[in-house]
Amino acid sequence: MIKWDDSYSVSYDGIDEQHKILISIIQEVETAINDDSYSFKGLIEVLNRLEEYIKVHFSYEEALMTKYDYPEKDQHFTEHNELRFKILSTNLDYIEKSKDFYTETYTYLFNWLINHIMKIDKKLALFLVDKNA
Ligand SMILES: [Fe+2]
Ligand SMILES: [Fe+2]
Predict the structure, then answer these.
(1) What is the number of the ligand closest to the CA of 83?
(2) Is 28 in a helix, a strand, or coil?
(3) Is the entire prediction scored with pTM above 0.85?
(4) Quick check: helix, strand or coil at residue 10?
């Protein structure tokens, strides 16, 4: 079940706000797939929005890491780049695939995101709070 939970909070408002938006767009993907009025066009519209927002969010965190010279920047950038590459190579809007395929895709994204938030983003947030950023 795709839903924001307060345990996902990294206790840094700017990052939490964007994570909430990301999760709500993933929820929209879930809805778009399971909706009675499903259309490939509608689904692609939401997936494109998700892709765009992932870019916005990663750039936001990366700018903070650069600005405050975060010591674990390289590892964090590498994780972001792995997901960027995965999204690029998925070619989501190339040709219509099964609903199972899209379900697997958004489930993967959601799990990736939660895992990343809990391990990698939380560390960054602690650092930023410490720097009064
Ligand atoms: Fe991150
Ligand atoms: Fe993040």
Answers:
(1) 1
(2) helix
(3) yes
(4) coil
In this structure, what are the phi and psi dihedrals at residue 68, rounded to the nearest 5 degrees?
-100, 10
**Residue-range definition of the domain harbouring residue 22:** 6-130
Number of domains forming the structure of the chain: 1
Q: Domain with 77 in it: what CATH number?
A: 1.20.120.50
* Ion ligand 1, residue ranges at CB < 5 A: 61, 121
Question: pLDDT tens, 110-133?
Answer: 999 999 999 999 999 999 999 999
Question: Helix, strand, or coil here: 61?
Answer: helix
What pLDDT does 89 receive?
80
Query: Which pLDDT belongs to residue 81?
Result: 97
Ligand 1: centre distance to CA 39 (Å):
31
Which ligand is nearest the CA of 120, by number?
1
Does residue 83 lie within any of the structural domains?
Answer: yes
Query: Does residue 52 form part of some domain?
Result: yes
Summarised one tens digit per residue, pLDDT across range 61-102 is 999 999 999 999 999 999 999 999 988 887 776 788 899 999
Nearest ligand by distance to the CA of 10 = 2
- Is residue 1, in this structure, part of any structural domain at all? no
Report yes or no: 15 and 61 within 8 Å, Cβ to Cβ: yes
